[in-house]
Amino acid sequence: MRQIYRILDANFNRAREAMRVIEDFARFILDDATISSSAKELRNRLREAVEPFPANALLAARDTPGDVGTAITSSGETDRSDAADVATAACKRLTEALRTLEEYAKVAKPETAGQFESMRYDAYTLEQQLALRLAVGEKFGKVRLYVLLTSHLCKSDPIATGQAVIAGGADCIQIREKEMSDRKLLAHARRVREITQAAGVLLIINDRPDIAAIVGADGVHLGQDDIPVADARRSLGEGRFIVGGSTHNIAQARAAASDGADYIGVGPMFPTATKDAGPVAGAAYLKEVIAEIQIPHVAIGGITADNIGELVAVGVRRAAVCSAVIAADDPAKAAAEIKKQLTHKQ
Fold it and tell me: Considering the entire predicted model, what is its pTM?
């Protein structure tokens, strides 16, 4: 039985350590309370599952100096290009360890094998959540110019305007229609989805997770008075959609990041006619976000080709614009002027 305990002890440690790596990644890199909590819960369940096994016997079976495996390495074992690679490898290590625990528990304490099996299935779900969240983050991470499309502000047909700003370099379009009926909004969103999908541009729907899901948009953007980020994510399907949130101060930014937002709007940077934008937050708030918040941020509010340079100088790499582009005589040209400054190397 000593050899069995030796295997169990090694995999108890391996699983627990992998869970901690995943938890720390979700907590400190992603600022994702949901994934972090799931990993922590799994650690607690593992601790409870270990309790029936004799602690002294497990420790006595441990033989690190005599373990032939400590001297065996494989190519790629130490290859980690970034923190995401570390967390992804930990997920694989976790499920492997739980499978080993499940099988050898059948010999040592058969009544506990089911617990390890259940944890293994939940670890697969945790791995899926992490992978989906990373895929969403990678998708939004490429955005530089984010355009808010509001029909009544467009000088020409909103679909033609959307096509023009895409031609000018827009990476993401948000449909922002506060007054449009549900039926009209749905039809409009479907048309915009067609042009964004054809161009490989992201589509975000303001306020409406239901419309976003129906038309197959890439995500939803939520204001401070809309449904919480976590609830929107649950309604859309965990990790499958981008969920962004408007923030006007550092406390709101921290809360959005903790709730699992994929990005935050930061503003308003300058005076704007948008009714719910709030008082100007300006560069002071922007600097706080750049220094502290890990998830992508999008500067918003009163941004034009004439003032975007001030934000770029502070560190902005993504900006959301509305009237300065869609109300311009030449939306494509207006978009291109702002995009050029966002992508110009400082």
Answer: 0.72
Show Cβ contacts of residue 208 under 8 Å, excluding neighbours closer than 6 positions.
Answer: 185, 220
One-character DSSP codes across 233-245: HHHH-TTTSEEEE
| CB-based contact 232:220 (threshold 8 Å) | yes
Q: Is 277 helix (H, G, I), strand (E, B) or coil?
A: coil
Beta bridge partners of 319: 145, 299
How far apart are the C-alpha atoms of 327 and 154, rounded to whole Å? 5
Q: For the chain, how big is the Rg over CA atoms in Å?
A: 25
pLDDT digits (tens, 9 = 90+) for 273-300: 765 667 899 989 999 999 999 889 999 9
* Amino acid identity for residue 256 in this structure: A
Whether the pLDDT of residue 111 is over 70: the answer is yes
Helix (H) or strand (E) holding 16: helix 2-24
Catalogue all structural domains in the chain, each as residue range(s) with its CATH number. 2-138 (1.20.1260), 142-343 (3.20.20.70)
Span 72-108, pLDDT tens digits: 666 666 678 889 999 999 999 999 999 999 999 999 9
CA 242 and chain centroid, separation: 7
What confidence score (pLDDT) does residue 76 get?
A: 63
Report the C-alpha gap between 222 and 232 in whole angstroms.
9
174: left (phi over 0), alpha (psi -120 to 50) or beta: beta
CA distance 149 to 147: 6
Query: What kind and span of H or E run contains 246?
Result: strand 242-247
In this structure, are residues 52 and 101 in contact, taking their beta carbons and an 8 Å threshold? no
What secondary structure letter does DSSP report for 54? -
According to DSSP, the β-strands at 202-206 and 219-222 are: parallel
Q: Is 79 exposed, middle or buried (0-12, 13-18, 19+ CB in 10 A)?
A: exposed
